Amino acid sequence: MYKGGKIIASLIIFAALFTIPFFYNMGKVNAGPDVALDTPAIQRLPASEQQCVESPEFMKENHMQLLNQWREEAVRNGQTVYINSQGKKFDISLQDTCLKCHATESASNPVVLNNPANSTGVSNPALNASPEFCASCHDYSAVKPLCWTCHFEPKEAVK
Amino acid sequence: MKVLFSFLAVILIILVATMGAFITNLHYVFGIIIPYLAFAMFVGGFIYRVVKWGRSPVPFRIPTTIGQQKSLPWIKQNKIENPTSAFGVVVRMAMEVLFFRSLFRNTKTELREGQNGPELAYGSAKWLWLGSLFFHWSFLIIIVRHLRFFLEPIPFAIQALESIDGILQIGLPAIYLTDVFILVAITYLFLRRIVVPQVRYISLPADFFPLFMIMSIAISGVLMRYFYKVDLVAVKQLTIGLATFQPVLPTGIGPMFFIHIFLVSTLFAYFPTSKLMHMGGIFMSPTRNMISNNRMVRHINPWNPEVKVHTYEQYEDEFRDKMKKAGIPVEKE
Amino acid sequence: MAPKVKLPKPGELSKIEFKNPATDWMDTPVEFKPGTYCWGAKEKDLLTLGLPNPRQWSPADEDWKIPDGWESTIIEGIAERLSKYRSFKVFMDICVRCGACADKCHFYIATGDPKNMPVLRAELLRSVYKKYFTKSGKFLGRLAGARELNMDVLKEWWSYFFQCTECRRCSVFCPYGIDQAEVTIIGRELLNLVGLNIDWIAGPAAACYMKGNHLGLEPHAITGNIESMVDDIEDITGIRVNPTFNRKGAEIMFVTPSGDLLGEPGIQTCMGYLMLFHELGLDYTWSTYASEGGNFGFFTSNDMAKRLNYKIYAEAKRLGVKYIIGGECGHMWRVLNQYMDTWHGPADFLEVPVSPITGTVFENAKSTKMIHISEFTADLIKHKKLNLDPSRNDHLKVTYHDSCNPSRGMGLLDEPREIIKAVCNNFYEMPENTIREKTFCCGSGSGLNASENMEQRMRGGFPRANAVKYVREKHGVNMLANICAVDRAALPALMDYWNPGVGVTGVTELVGNALVMKGEKERTTNLRFEDLPGKGGNE
C126 lies in a domain? Predict the structure, then answer.
């Protein structure tokens, strides 16, 4: 007895399980998130203020630790000022420091949506309907930030 | 010696991976070509091996019966461990595959000196079961979790799995339970191969190699998450590129990723040639996957051979006189 | 023959060293220690059976007289079996050497020899499979666990495949169900391709082939033995039972292992059958042609097993019976349950077994049309068709040994227990890990119950004996019941060695003693002519 039918059926299931990504993404364009680092809000700032609290490379890798550190400083230690690696001072505030530049206005600003120039170049802006700063990457890689359990989530982030 | 060999082999693979990671020109090979090849070898090799098994028939119905048979109506049958229905077999297989039922039975035999001579005692021994269960389930969840890199948009179920796995919210990024479990479990599986004399004696290099491979994959994954960070968004662009057959190689991913993916690729390519095929084999094991209805339904052997037999006529010819003398009826007087 | 070897004392034998050799198992040569191995198969038996390479040889000799080119015979044999048995192929490929099977084998427990761990026993063959049938083994050799086939390997196979009783206990604990019995069966087939069998298997198989039973009893000897049992029954009960032989037109043919026809306590079990069937007025017949339930061909090769098994259906057809009842035997029932119908079915000349006494239809045997005596008797007891006086067994404190094959190749577990509980007042189970599907072998199964390997048999039976010792000390158990002719042959020696004072009985002997027959005289002795409790002259 071979039970060939059952073996073939099982192998089809096996192959199907392992090739889910190919079918799931079939026909889709590989569009990364749209991380706008020169939003109108940033552009409106004086040139000396356009640099983030730390370098973009550092922020990319360590923003979660930094935010965690800020929370610790502000909530537990009552510290309100952060001095960055260049010796520059920043208010410790998600709302007023981070979100001032990131994730404000942009969604309601049609200029951003229609302007391909705002992209970092690696992705197709037309497919990134939400230009919301945090959500774009976090949704893309399914990492759930814990910020919004205390802070009000910017409404643009709600898809 | 066996351990050392496997260890050195894995070190060599890590060195190759590191070379690939630090030579930018090789990124296309290590990030795209090798993963594709490895995946094809895994799926293709797996199917090849199973088909190869499947080409041999199961000539006899030989389930290992681990409970009361179905016989008289008032005797309670063990419908799972001595199944007479397809449903019973499905449950039996599910228990084996999902919960390692047979390993759960494991006992430890001890010979000790009792009051009246030697005594054999059989104690419960669930550590192997527990370690294996944690290892395999963690591995599965980790693989499913990784689908977040291969699916866009990411289905809710995978996000939910991810949040459950990180439920402790320790550390930033949050520690995955499965990462801890798999490292602990694989360390246990490794140590028992070293420490338990019998297991050390039966172990082959081919038993240590996959352990070291999986260990190094898990460690490189953890290092990547906490210490040698990579650009996740770029990683996902690469992986989605693979999944959509539009490979892209974003810049600045970070070397640890290439080490990790090369180790994973090696394991995938190695998988079908090794004992890791127990993943498919368990479904093919005739002692577990057959209905135990031997006396109710005839099982067909496709190569049932013609054999030479000693017929009754031959027997009577030899013993006719003796049979007649003993009053036994005969065919020919 | 080599000089008789002195059997070590139990105290020596139970000093088991679980210490691995200093050398890797591939570098540890096999040792042939007198008392632990069986004699080689005799030339005349292999000739009778038409098996390859018949010659006189001894395992103790350096030269086993294997014909040149044997390596390719074996390798081709492996290839053939890989293409015939999915079990073999899968089991060769998927073992992860987790070691769960190691201390489940009675031979490993009692010898401490790592090659007796099921995993390593399989590895003896797997290493050769890897060398010749897998790429990794070809290229990586020893690193992949592969090795060349040579004479040392062949001798090692012979030694260890005849130190496995095919009991399947390891298969219960294996997470993939890898069954060492299956590997041993194939290993022995391969050995038989070059004429390497043991005398204790080839001899009975040859006798069975020519004369119908392992003991080589000729027709008149069978009727003679049974006649003397009939005389004994008359002495004990005052009733003369009338068995018939090779009678056409009987409703039922009865087949039991020939071990029940000769020697104690087999014959008392046989007397039990005779009394039970007589009391029921069963229309049944014995056959002198199909006078063997067991099958030592099964310990030789699949073909050989099929050749011996042929007689049962052929004789049932010739006699025109409706169905077959099988007696108490272990491996016989593995064969009948899992092989016979596939080999020689469909048995469409028979009818689905129906008990003529209770009307119970044995749906579970609707295809093979062969039922176990315990199924038949348990049904009678449930329907209260037997007049039983269990107090006649009151001097016995009984425990029950599940035979390997009916437990793990069939699942016949509760039927005999139902019977024992109805015919005995004192029944005690051995510890949980040593009964039912986890039962321990008698140590002499699969053709290993020779006398020259007595030391090995006593070792192999040590876990079983130790469990009996436990209930003996706890409950005063003095009788070990079973449903297997090999057990009845092997366990008395085992009990004498480890637990002197514990007897061995077939379940149907207990039935025969408790059975109150119509018109019987008052019994004063049991079937062994021992005084019944309260009836003895001296009490």
Answer: yes
Helices and strands, counts by H and E, chain B: 14, 2
Tens of pLDDT, residue by residue over B191-218, are 999 999 999 999 999 999 999 999 999 9
What total of structural domains would you count in chain A? 1
Distances (CA, A) of B27 to A120, B34, B80, B270, C268: 22, 10, 52, 21, 81
pLDDT value at position C539?
41
**Contact by Cβ (8 Å): B78, B72:** no
Together in a domain, C217 and C250: yes
Same-domain status, C259 and C313: yes
Fold for the domain defined by B2-306: Fumarate Reductase Cytochrome B subunit (1.20.950)
The CA-atom distances, in angstroms, between C283 and each of C242, C362, C451 are 11, 17, 39
- 3-state SS class at A142: coil
What is the span of the domain harbouring residue C494? 205-514
pLDDT in tens, B238-284: 999 999 999 999 988 889 999 999 999 999 999 999 999 999 999 99
Closest C-alpha among C265, C28, C282 to residue C147: C28
Record the pTM.
0.91
Kindly give the parts of chain A with pLDDT less than 70.
Answer: 103-131, 153-159
Domain count, chain C: 2
Q: How far is CA B191 from CA A47, B67, B214, in A?
A: 59, 34, 14
Q: Give per-residue pLDDT as tens, C239-280.
A: 999 999 999 999 999 999 999 999 889 999 999 999 999 999
Domain map (residue ranges) of chain B: 2-306
State the SS3 of A29-83.
CCCCCCCCCCCHHHHCCCHHHCCCCCCHHHHHHHHHHHHHHHHHHHHHCCCCEEE
Give the end of a domain, one of C143, C169, C197. Answer: C197
Residue C38: helix, strand or coil by DSSP? coil
CA–CA separation, B145 and C371 (whole Å): 54
The DSSP bridge partners found for residue B110 are B121
Let me know if residue C525 belongs to a domain: no
Q: Based on the domain organization, do C375 and C500 belong to the same domain?
A: yes
For residue B1, give every residue at least 6 positions away whose Cβ sits within 8 Å of its Cβ, in sequence order, or none: none
Exposed/middle/buried for residue C537 (C-beta within 10 Å: 0-12, 13-18, 19+): exposed
Which of chain B's residues have a Cβ under 8 Å away from the Cβ of A20?
A: 147, 150-151
Residue C366's contacts (CB-CB under 8 Å, 6 or more residues apart) are: B295, B296, C352
**Cα gap C254→C257, rounded to integer Å:** 10
Instruction: Please tell me whether residues C225 and C125 are part of one structural domain.
Output: no
Let me know how long chain B is. 333
Closest in B60, B68, B103 to C411, CB measured: B68
CA distance B278 to chain A (A): 14
Q: Which residues of C touch B194 (CB under 8 A)?
A: none
Q: With beta carbons under 8 A apart, name residues in chain A contacting B245.
A: 22
ipTM: 0.94
Whether residues C175 and C217 fall in one domain: no
| Measured CA distances, A77 to B23, B170, C475 (Å) | 45, 21, 73
User: Closest Cα to residue C126, out of C159, C164, C158, C94?
Assistant: C94
CB within 8 Å: B149 and A141: yes
Chain B CB contacts of C360 under 8 Å are 72
Within a domain: C67: yes
Residue B124 sits at φ, ψ, to 5 deg, of -70, 140
CATH code: domain of residue C151? 1.10.1060
Give the pLDDT of residue B163: 87
What is the signed CA dihedral for C357, C358, C362, C368, rounded to 10 degrees?
0
Residues C307 and C261 in one domain: yes
C182: nearest CB among B62, B326, B330? B62
Q: Are residues C259 and C407 in the same domain?
A: yes
Domain of A98 in residue numbering reads as 7-157
